[in-house]
Amino acid sequence: MDAEHSQHPKVFVSYSWSSPEHERRVLEWAERLVRDGIDVTIDKWSLKEGQDKYAFMESMVTDSTVTKVIVLSDATYANKADAKKGGVGTESQIISGEVYAKVEQTKFIPVVCERDEASQPCLPTFLKSRIYIDFSSPQAFHDEYQKLVRAIYNKTLYKKPELGVTPEYILNPSRPSSDIEINSVAELRKYILSNPSDCSGYITHYFDAVYERLEQYRLALPPQSELDELILESLDALLGLRNALLDAFSLCIIDSRDPNTTGLIINFCERMLWYKGHPEGATHWSHEYAENYSIFLYDVYLHLVAMLLNRGRLTDCQQLLEHNYLLPDNFPNKDNDHPLANFTMFWAGSSALSRRNNRLQLQRIDLIADLLKERTTTKHVSFRDLMQAEGVLFMRSVFANATTNIRKRAWFPHSFVYAQYSMVFPLFARATSRKTYMAMLPLVSAPVEGSPREVFLDKIRNDNDYAGWFGSLYTCDVNFDTMYNLKGISTID
Predict the structure, then answer these.
(1) Tens digit of pLDDT for each residue in 353-363?
(2) Could you tell me where the beta strands, DSSP code E, fall in 218-372?
(3) What one-character-per-residue DSSP string does 275-314 give?
(4) Which long-range contacts (CB under 8 A, 24 or more apart) does 177-184 make?
(5) CATH match of 10-152 with 3.40.50.10140
(6) Over 60: is that where the pLDDT of 169 sits?
(7) CB-count exposure of residue 341 (10 Å: 0-12, 13-18, 19+)
(8) 222 vs 220: CA distance, rounded Å
């Protein structure tokens, strides 16, 4: 029976009676193999007076039930085998004949027990090309013994994985692959873990690679099919890159101790705004042609905020939201006299998806909300975490002071269409404590004095930017008082 399927594999031990000390070691090894469930045949246990020792040796080597022959080779064994002297010489002739003939290559396992003056393994000529187990070093004996036992049981330490599926980029060559970014996340992880306080160079290198890869996902123009179909196909293709990028953000947030990390993330987000505008050399352009990128950036930015909040990194999150982003030259409707904008530039709407909703009569409240929910598939955040993050962004956009120098827009929270009437955001539930509320204030830009409830509700009901959106919420189950804990916020000292 094959050793892989046998409960107790059977082996024969071939060795030389070189010295009493060597014989003692051989018996100790044989006894240890038996204790490990291996049926060992060795001359001292199995060869009786009156038996033909040469017939015994031949039967052990050629017996089909003997799954392995363990050749314990020292200098004496190697010399006698090469000179064909004594019992070892006869035995080795039988073994060498089997080795060179039809026998399975792995049946014979050389075990080096000694090395010569040049530190070369003492092996007979017919075994010198074979991979061996090394018992010559006491320091390595434990690991080498385990290798021998694994070999006997046909249970190697390293197993080839199951054959996977053909990559999508082979089946569909027109779709770009994010393998480079995914592979480089593994390299980023190793680098950050080994250099947590000085990893800004590698983080920058990774973000540069992602930024360059994004160019491959531009929609082919002019569109050859419905624009909404092209946008959804592009977002599907971008999902692998998005997931890899979130893994990288997680490493930066959790494992990096480099003081420049938050600034690098902010700079990367700022650079990505370039993809919301027209490519270089474009002569005919509509902002809808970049809606795949707009939704991608919205998704990524929202995940980033949620990840920072989950880790309690309120100061870093505040930096991200307070930053004045320099708009690129190609940004839609850019005013060169006012080149800075706040975080609301990462919000995304989609005219193409709105038309899709009507064209296909899908009767969905918000297709971007549906996409967001479907794409929240990573280990980093849940969809409720994203809703809370969007709740923070929405409140900050409501409270943010309008200035003549900083461009801003309303942040309409797509995810709120999935709100439940009794839902409360944990961040705001904890803000019942005045101390916690004061720590959270800079994050949402809420007024320091008095209750934020009246100001907040008045703005979203009556402000021109939000009134229309607020009126459309009649189909949703949004309860702002409960969601934001507006009546309980900062009520306990």
Answers:
(1) 999 999 999 99
(2) 325-326, 340-341
(3) GGSPPTT-SS--GGGGHHHHHHHHHHHHHHHHHHHHTT-H
(4) 177/240, 178/213, 178/238, 178/240, 178/241, 178/244, 180/209, 180/213, 181/206, 181/209, 181/210, 181/213, 181/240, 181/241, 181/244, 181/245, 182/240, 182/243, 182/244, 184/209
(5) yes
(6) no
(7) buried
(8) 6
Structure tokens at 485: 């804990």
pLDDT-derived band of residue 6, with 50, 70 and 90 as boundaries? Answer: low
In which residue ranges of the chain is CATH 3.40.50.10140 found?
10-152
- Give the residue among 170, 133, 135 at the shortest CA–CA distance from 148: 133
Q: Is residue 473 within 8 Å of residue 479, measured between CB atoms? A: no
pLDDT tens digits along 52-108: 777 787 777 778 898 999 999 999 998 888 877 655 555 556 565 554 455 567 888
Q: Is 102 helix (H, G, I), strand (E, B) or coil?
A: coil
Number of H helices, E strands in the chain: 21, 8
Q: For residue 372, give every residue at least 6 positions away whose Cβ sits within 8 Å of its Cβ, in sequence order, or none.
A: 299, 302, 383, 386, 414, 415
What is the CA 364 to chain-centroid distance, rounded?
33
Residue with tokens 């930096």: 319
Tokens at 142, concatenated: 């434990």
Determine the length of the chain. 493
